[in-house]
Amino acid sequence: MEPQKILVAGAWESSPNAVDIRSPYDGHLVGTTYLATPEQVERAAAASVSGFTAMRALGAWERAAILRTTAAKITERREELAKLLSAEAGKPIRDARAEIDRGALTFRLAGEEAERMIGETIPLDLAPASKGRLGITRRFPVGPVLGISPFNFPLNLAAHKVAPAIAAGCSMVLKPPSADPLIMLKVAEILVDAGLPAGGLSVIPTSRPDADRLIEDERFKVLSFTGSPAVGWSLKGRAGRKRVLLELGGNAACIVDESADIGWAVKRALVGSFAYAGQVCISVQRIYVHEAIADEFEQKFAAGVARLVLGDPANEATDLGPLIDDGAASRTATWIREATADGARIIAGGTAVDPNNPRLFSPTILTDVPRSARICSEEAFAPVVVLERFKDFSTAIAAVNESRFGLQCGIFSNDLAHVRAAFDHLEVGGVIVNDVPTYRIDHMPYGGVKDSGLGREGVRWSIDEMTEIKLLVLADPQ
Question: Are residues 240 and 260 in the same domain?
């Protein structure tokens, strides 16, 4: 197996720092790539400046063609890419295919947005002195973008940085996740073959100290980071005058109201709570269920959990694969023990299915959990969900808002007044009615409030972050 070279300033290069990428499921070797050296990191940063000149000179049709070709090639290579993603991320193969499809959609949407970056005309003759004047606005790319993407969606969350940057006419240096960088290096090959100018994109796995130096580099005009709140807010403090887009952690909640369709709520909560072993920023971690339907919901939810298949990500029947590493498994077990010591009750799961493979963690349901317990108040990023009963809808809203996070919230209800109250009062970036907060499609504005981040992704909204409005005023001689 030939090592996967890294993309540095338009060239495919190796380095003295080879790194093996191993499956989080069974440790088998998925592939080998390289960590960029400090010299390669510097060349990538320098090339982003000349690359920006080339990118902004492309016509809209050229940027759109690159993006559409990339989308088509990703779809053409769907099975190959899905198997790679599944192996290096430990993601069940069905979920890996879904991520490949979403990645293709993201690039396709970006191609469409590249062709409709429209401005507006503004009548300026609102006072006698402005007679005969008209304003015209247009968006211009701001400059090179630094992207840092996480392990849990190694293709699609990176695509939400790369595709809008190309659509906007910006260059980008992307640091992919250390655990699973191979998928975006393959996509970078597709982008280069599609005609992306040299320097338009560098994809450089590298050490944190070498990547950290880029945070303060004034050649970059935008920082787009997806990852943990602690790291994200620290990077913002060091980013200087850059625009900063942060997509951080969550502790997503669902409210299951008395008027909900219980069967549908259970079906969707099983997906929202346990897809990719809960390693999703908008994974369902807390479910508030009206006391009138709580017994039925709990029984059906537990029965559904018992039917979930945990195991080899390559198996078509697998619903949950492994946690990304032993540290994640240890943290999950510790937080559950803490909660049970404080009175929490385990309805399902609670431990690894095999002590010799702690990463395969049973889908877990807890109840009677103190809200101060870390498994309830922090981001678990694991297949664990906490159930709590409520009587009054306003108390459920208040409970959701206790969290320091605020990405999205799901509400299962057929009561319009409750839906409107949720939309008005929930402190989140998105309210998803009759579905889980885990729902996302790639053209919607996505992002959070409080410790969950800053700004919005979704292709059009990311383009807004990577461009600036310029005003042209036309005056008729008087």
Answer: no
Inside any domain, residue 351: yes
3-state helix, strand, coil in the chain (%, to 5): 40, 20, 35
pLDDT at 8 exceeding the cut of 90: yes
> Number of folded domains in the chain?
2
Which residues carry out catalysis? 247, 281
Q: Are residues 88 and 191 in the same domain?
A: yes
**In this structure, are 260 and 173 located in the same domain?**
no
Q: What are phi and psi of 36, to 5 degrees?
A: -65, 140
pLDDT of residue 212: 87
Beta-strand (E) ranges in 277-412? 284-290, 345-348, 364-367, 384-390, 405-406, 408-412
Task: Indicate the SS3 state at residue 388.
Answer: strand
252-256 and 284-290 beta bridge pairing: parallel
| Tens-place pLDDT, residues 255-295 | 999 999 999 999 999 999 999 999 999 999 999 999 999 99
pLDDT-above-70 percentage for the chain:
100
Which pLDDT does position 52 carry in this prediction? 98
Report which secondary-structure segment, H or E, holds 19: strand 18-22
Residues 188 and 293 in one domain: no
Whether residue 356 has pLDDT greater than 90: no
Q: What are phi and psi of 91, to 5 degrees?
A: -90, 130
Q: Tell me: do 460 and 359 sit in the same domain.
A: no
Q: Which domain holds residue 340?
A: 252-441
Same domain? For 260 and 117 the reply is no
